[in-house]
Design a protein that fits this description.
- It is a single chain.
- The chain contains 11 helices and 7 strands.
- With 246 residues, it is of the alpha/beta class.
- The chain folds into 2 domains: 5-205, P-loop containing nucleotide triphosphate hydrolases (Rossmann fold, 3-Layer(aba) Sandwich); 212-246.
- Strand 6 (170-176), helix 10 and strand 7 (199-205) form a beta-alpha-beta unit.
- Bound molecules: adenosine-5'-diphosphate and magnesium ion.
- Magnesium ion (MG) binds at residues 48-49, 72, 77, 151.
């Protein structure tokens, strides 16, 4: 069973938000082909894998042929998101133990979506990712897919995402609201800039809807509550004053 909201609940506002990101990526496509896309963030658990899985589903729903490749060779999770086995994957292809066709999964729910999981976790992820073989492998996939999404480890901690960005056409930067401070996000962006990454945009993840202007009713009721509270305080002060004067 997968945990992907764009599959389980395509009409939800969250799935709609992913379609909005999809449209933005399509618009970045005007002058330069944007086919290989990486997703990264400053640190762990900001939602990179969640965002990449939902984006991939969103593109596949347009009848585009889409591949997700797990480039997080340290803490792979794409297989879990789609409920797939991770016995064979990227590392097998790179070590020429198995070929791509033997390792790639088709997904049950979305027929245009393929997934290549990590495979066995290697002792030398950065070396593997920076190898000529990896670069050539990703290039060789371009003719078979409309979009290739590559999941990565956090760029604020290790260099892997910077390496991956050099063979992508663009990177999506995920920032988790309340989990990273502005300096961490800035350092991560500087690291992407330093390797010449084409940053397509930033996704603000885990943002609490009640703070958003769109959630008018929540906002209204909060205002109403606090006005009620200050009214009580005013009455208390008035009574105190009356008591002092009597
Ligand atoms: N918008 C969100 N709201 C709530 N939980 C989220 C959101 N995005 C991701 N998560 C949860 O946060 C955890 C980390 O997400 P994950 O995508 O694995 O992060 P990363 O790949 O950056 O390490 C997961 O349990 C995921 O379900
Ligand atoms: Mg992840």
């Amino acid at each position: 069973m997968n945990k992907i909201i764009s599959i389980n609940s395509p009409k939800s506002p969250i799935s709609e938000a992913y379609r909005g990101i999809r449209t933005n990526i399509e618009f970045s496509n005007l002058d330069k082909e944007i086919k290989v896309i990486g997703v990264t963030s400053s640190k762990q658990s900001e939602g990179k894998s969640t965002v990449i899985a939902n984006l991939a589903v969103s593109f596949a729903a347009l009848e585009k042929k889409v591949l997700i490749l797990d480039g997080d060779l340290r803490n792979p999770s794409v297989h879990r998101m789609f409920g797939l086995s991770n016995i064979h994957g990227v590392t097998d292809v790179l070590l020429e133990k198995h070929n791509f066709v033997d390792c790639v999964h088709s997904t049950e729910d979305i027929n245009k979506l393929n997934v290549l999981t990590c495979g066995q976790i290697p002792p030398n992820p950065s070396e593997m990712l920076s190898s000529k073989r990896m670069r050539n492998f990703v290039d060789s996939l371009r003719e078979y897919y409309d979009y290739i999404f590559i999941d990565t480890p956090p760029i604020g901690i290790i260099t892997d995402a910077g390496i991956i960005s050099t063979y992508t056409d663009g990177m999506v930067f995920v920032v988790s609201s309340n989990e990273v401070d502005i300096n961490q996000a800035k350092i991560a962006k500087e690291r992407l800039d330093a390797v010449g990454a084409n940053i397509l945009g930033t996704v603000l993840n885990k943002f609490e809807a009640k703070r958003s202007g769109n959630d008018y009713y929540n906002y209204y009721y909060e205002e109403h509550d606090s006005r009620g509270k200050s009214e009580k305080r005013k009455n208390k002060r008035k009574k105190k004053k009356e008591k002092a004067m009597s």
